[in-house]
Every structure is written in structure tokens, then in C-alpha cells.
Fold this protein.
Amino acid sequence: MSVAKFRKYPFIRKLVDNSPILLMNGTDILEDNMMEARVTREDLFSKLRESNVTQFSQIKAVIMETTGDISVLHYKDPEHEIDEVILENVRFK
């Protein structure tokens, strides 16, 4: 029998579901939260690139969702350059 069937009960949901966790607060990377969520800096930077973030200054928050997805909340600034750290460990050919 699947756990999903019992998720309708709050006490079961609390046992099996994760809660969202903040990975970045603005430009601050929250290393302890990343360790708890088992997210590496490479995973984070990959998600930032995927979300079209090119500077840390664009980032409002990065959240590990209960589903395991990473949400990036950011804003756009038309006059910006890419921060090198965003492209860290990216191979160029």
C-alpha cells in the first residue's frame, strides 16, 4: 500500500514530507542549510544558470522545495554582467 494514500492525515504527512528550506537569502549562501538539504555548490550554481541568473545581486532567495525542486526567486537588471562564480566549474570549448 502506498504512503501517498495516508498523506491525507496530518500526522502522517508531517512524518513523510519535508519542509522547504532556504538555501540562499539574497546573496548569502546558507552552507548549513545546503548541507542539511544535501545540495552542493555545483548543484546550486547549475540551478542559478538554469534560472538565467547571471549575478548574485539578482537573487532574492533560493529554496529547496518539499518536492526536491529548487526554486530561484530573482529579479532582472538589464545592465549587468555575469559574475564569474556563477560559471564556476563550467567547461568552455
